[in-house]
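Regression test case RT-17, inverse folding.

Input:
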């Protein structure tokens, strides 16, 4: 027995020794081509499915693995992925890797616009991406400003952080002014930021980019028809930081200088992430800012910030992620500026393209709430738009065996947006009766009304001092107004503007579920997407008496005729016509459901077909108040000498209901053919659909039944492209044809007889665009890269009609103009970015030229927005392992390009009214343009730990 025990002990010792001897480790160091270590590169060892990231020295170590053959994959954004088979023999194995630059991120896996994540080179879509380094080379001014770096994307961020416009390939007709993201889906981590849009309620209100964003992926058209909820024009997906194997983070302090007066920007960004216990990881960060804005105003233009986080559990066969965002933010948006000279617009009335904002100054008013006049709404234009978004979600991915993978992404959000700002900045001459009668729009319908004619006194609302006293009693007999004292109003006018109050909220739930099955030749995806939104929307407009000058002042206005009581045309703040210009009170429930199927078929080793179908149904159900003036005698306060509260609009008790379904089938067929490992050609045919947004009901039916649903716009697209990736150069080029049908267009106009605003009847139109977009990078020598991207296109208004209301809501004098065959408005025929980057050791410098070609200012092609160029530059230096400093300058030479056009300067005018005939008949007329933002610069101090 003793001998048996000795033998067993000997055998056990041999076995343990053999097991110990068979265990090994792999040590590696990852460098770039300049032998600089790469930190946070992702390392994956299969089939053991072990994942690591490199440390600050570019090193990683895999311990306690058995001898044998493994596949080692190393990836890092901006570099080509290495996939290498290694043989582990000895106890310790030391390896060195050098990653080559991936110049257009073609070797990087993309997750946007595809149901099966794959390398960009392998996809049959026109996809672009921005990494964190590229995002840091822009001035931090909203989502649209950042996306101007995406090739082929038209962006207009001239209004600031919000109220922006984004579109591609001529799919733009309904994406103007207050609906600038109409066709595209703005996403965070694969789900839409918001499910609904309507006037002044777009997804850019609820999105801010900061250090928590790892990269941006963009799909232009194509597969977005089958991969996005009601967003067939493209997808812009902001992807957050994820798993980091080591505790670390970054703090960034920013000081900005903007405009002619070097207005200040103060901002702090943070992000930290790393492992917890038991394969749990976290990431948390956000920003806070205070921004005086690029143009001059007497208040802080933007302030607030957000906090984002995620907690991830990494398992052998998948992951679980819980994530959230809290956004609490105040921002504003800029108006247009007055100009004259149709051929070469120049600023008018003392205004400047580079600095004038024409925003009402800060003041505190209490305006009766038309929904309940016993309550008031506080109004201060310095508040701008106050946005809040509380969003939380769960993302699950699990390999269930036998090559089946389940994914589910679920998010709930509660959104609020409160607008307290001004709308319109028209020139209203003191010779125009509108300047006075707008104070009481009910006057001409009442026998006891006091008409605002005689001696009208304008006082500075802040100081109370008299600025001017005029006699307007001769206006109806054709005589001009007369100044009665030495005081004068600037430009003999007031500004036609509204104190614009909007209160909007939405509770939203959205979910996307996919089930994938991989076989030897097919990757099948089956899925279901759903979105539910419950939204409320209230709009109220009051008139503001404001001086018409570059730095407007509020005016307290009274009628002071001899031997008669003083009559107040405005309150003490200069606000008049309380709640009588607009009244919209609606609620709606939106249900969006979609089922989809996709197959990526491996026809041959170098040929793949991508076939997808999506059936979508959208239900809009809600109601809209009928309205009327609440009091016709004495107004809300019962005092006949205070005219400013006589016309407040409120509900009559009647409601107009709507309950409509929109159902459509979309499809997309793609082909990817690999000529070799670095060259592919691809093609895609897509048919998408765009259901109406809620503005269709909110804007187009004023005190009339909502007797029909809107048209579904049809989008047909065909593209053919090539992708090339080599060591020193990369190129993608895509020829495309797009068609947009059943475009509903309507104008926002003023009835000269009743001083009420209305929308004209909808016209349905068609546009077509043929073009070529490209993206390229070339590195002629080490450390220097040259980037060139852009689009060349021919946008056409194929069939286009515009309704002309003739300045009144009465239809007897209405006409319809036919502009079919004209160039499509606001789409440049040429747009490009050309830049160069130098990077060596601790130094990085860049210079970029952005060119925006000429655009038509309206569909009549009566006015052209001239081409312009802007130049951006910057330099960064890494002081040591932890500290770095960057300087970034946007619009270096303070170019004065024009981004938008709003037509003649009269109150209620629209851009479509500036026809060639109108311009020829009014060569000296003034009009409203929206200049691009002036030069902005910043210095950033970064600490990485």
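Golden output:
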């Amino acid at each position: 027995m003793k001998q048996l025990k000795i033998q067993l002990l000997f055998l056990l010792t041999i076995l343990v020794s053999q097991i110990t001897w068979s265990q090994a480790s792999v040590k590696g160091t990852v460098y770039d081509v300049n032998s600089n270590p790469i930190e946070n590169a992702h390392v994956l060892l299969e089939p053991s499915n072990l994942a690591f990231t490199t440390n600050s020295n570019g090193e990683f170590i895999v311990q306690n693995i058995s001898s044998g053959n493994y596949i080692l994959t190393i990836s890092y954004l901006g570099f080509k992925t290495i996939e290498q088979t290694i043989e582990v023999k000895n106890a310790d194995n030391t390896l060195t890797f050098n990653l080559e630059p991936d110049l257009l991120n073609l070797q990087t896996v993309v997750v946007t616009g595809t149901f099966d994540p794959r390398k960009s080179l392998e996809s049959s879509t026109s996809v672009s991406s921005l990494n964190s380094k590229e995002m840091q080379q822009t001035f931090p001014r909203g989502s649209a400003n950042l996306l101007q770096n995406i090739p082929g994307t038209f962006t207009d961020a001239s209004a600031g952080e919000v109220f922006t416009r984004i579109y591609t390939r001529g799919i733009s007709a309904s994406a103007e002014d207050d609906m600038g993201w109409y066709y595209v889906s703005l996403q965070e981590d694969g789900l839409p930021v918001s499910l609904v849009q309507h006037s002044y309620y777009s997804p850019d209100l609820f999105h801010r980019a900061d250090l928590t964003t790892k990269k941006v992926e963009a799909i232009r058209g194509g597969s977005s028809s089958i991969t996005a909820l009601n967003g067939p024009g493209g997808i812009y997906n902001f992807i957050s930081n994820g798993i980091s194997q080591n505790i670390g983070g970054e703090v960034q302090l920013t000081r900005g200088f903007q405009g002619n007066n070097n207005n200040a920007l103060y901002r702090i960004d943070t992000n930290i992430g790393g492992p917890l216990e038991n394969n749990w990881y976290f990431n948390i960060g956000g920003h806070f800012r205070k921004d005086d804005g690029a143009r001059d105003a007497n208040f802080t233009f933007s302030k607030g910030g957000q906090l984002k986080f995620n907690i991830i559990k990494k398992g052998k066969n998948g992951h679980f992620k819980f994530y959230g965002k809290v956004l609490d933010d105040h921002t504003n948006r800029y108006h247009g500026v007055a100009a004259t000279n149709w051929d070469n617009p120049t600023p008018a009335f003392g205004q400047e393209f580079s600095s004038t904002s024409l925003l009402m100054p800060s003041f505190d008013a209490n305006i009766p709430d038309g929904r309940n006049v016993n309550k008031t709404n506080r109004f201060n234009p310095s508040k701008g738009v106050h946005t809040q978004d509380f969003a939380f979600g769960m993302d699950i991915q699990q390999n269930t065996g036998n090559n089946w993978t389940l994914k589910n992404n679920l998010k709930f959000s509660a959104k609020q947006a409160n607008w307290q700002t001004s709308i319109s900045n028209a020139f209203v001459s003191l010779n125009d009766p509108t300047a006075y009668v707008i104070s009481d729009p009910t006057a001409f319908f009442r026998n006891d009304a006091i008409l605002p004619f005689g001696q009208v006194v304008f006082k500075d609302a802040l100081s109370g001092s008299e600025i001017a006293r005029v006699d307007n009693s001769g206006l109806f007999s054709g005589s001009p107004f007369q100044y009665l004292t030495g005081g004068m109003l600037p430009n003999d006018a007031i500004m036609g503007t509204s104190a614009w109050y909007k209160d909007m909220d939405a509770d939203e739930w959205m979910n996307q579920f996919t089930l994938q099955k991989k076989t030897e030749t097919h990757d099948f995806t089956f899925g279901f997407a759903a979105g539910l939104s419950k939204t409320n929307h209230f709009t109220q407009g009051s008139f503001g008496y404001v001086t018409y000058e570059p730095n407007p002042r509020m005016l307290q206005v009274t009628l002071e005729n001899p031997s008669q009581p003083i009559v107040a045309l405005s309150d003490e703040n200069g606000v008049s016509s309380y709640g009588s210009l607009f009244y919209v009170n609606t609620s709606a429930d939106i249900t969006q459901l979609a089922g989809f199927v996709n197959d990526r078929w491996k026809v041959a080793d170098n040929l793949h077909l991508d076939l997808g179908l999506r059936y979508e149904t959208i239900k809009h159900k809600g109601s809209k108040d009928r309205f009327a003036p609440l009091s016709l005698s004495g107004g809300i306060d019962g005092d006949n000498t205070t005219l400013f509260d006589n016309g407040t609009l409120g509900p009559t008790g009647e409601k107009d209901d709507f309950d409509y379904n929109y159902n459509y089938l979309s499809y997309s067929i793609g082909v990817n053919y690999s000529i070799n490992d670095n060259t592919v050609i691809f093609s895609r045919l897509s048919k998408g659909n765009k259901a109406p947004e809620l503005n269709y009901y909110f804007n187009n039916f004023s005190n009339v039944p909502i007797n029909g649903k809107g048209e579904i716009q049809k989008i047909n697209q065909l593209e053919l492209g090539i992708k090339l990736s080599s060591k020193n150069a990369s190129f993608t080029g895509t020829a495309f044809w797009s068609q947009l049908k059943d475009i509903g267009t309507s104008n926002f106009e003023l009835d000269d007889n009743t001083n009420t605003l209305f929308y004209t009847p909808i016209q349905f139109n068609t546009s077509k665009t043929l073009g070529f977009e490209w993206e390229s990078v070339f590195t002629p020598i080490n450390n220097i890269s040259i980037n060139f991207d852009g689009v060349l296109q021919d946008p056409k208004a194929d069939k286009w009609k515009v309704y002309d209301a003739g300045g009144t809501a009465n239809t007897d004098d209405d006409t319809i103009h036919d502009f079919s065959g004209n160039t499509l408005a606001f789409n440049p025929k040429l747009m490009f970015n050309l830049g160069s980057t130098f990077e060596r050791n601790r130094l990085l410098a860049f210079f970029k030229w952005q060119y925006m070609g000429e655009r038509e200012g309206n569909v009549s092609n009566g006015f052209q927005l001239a081409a312009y160029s802007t130049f951006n530059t910057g330099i960064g230096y890494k002081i040591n392992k932890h500290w770095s400093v960057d300087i970034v300058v946007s619009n270096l030479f303070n170019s004065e390009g024009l981004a938008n056009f709003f037509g003649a300067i009269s109150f209620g005018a629209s851009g479509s009214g500036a026809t060639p005939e109108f311009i020829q008949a009014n060569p000296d007329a003034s009009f409203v343009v929206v200049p691009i933002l002036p030069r902005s610069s910043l210095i950033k101090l970064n600490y990485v730990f």
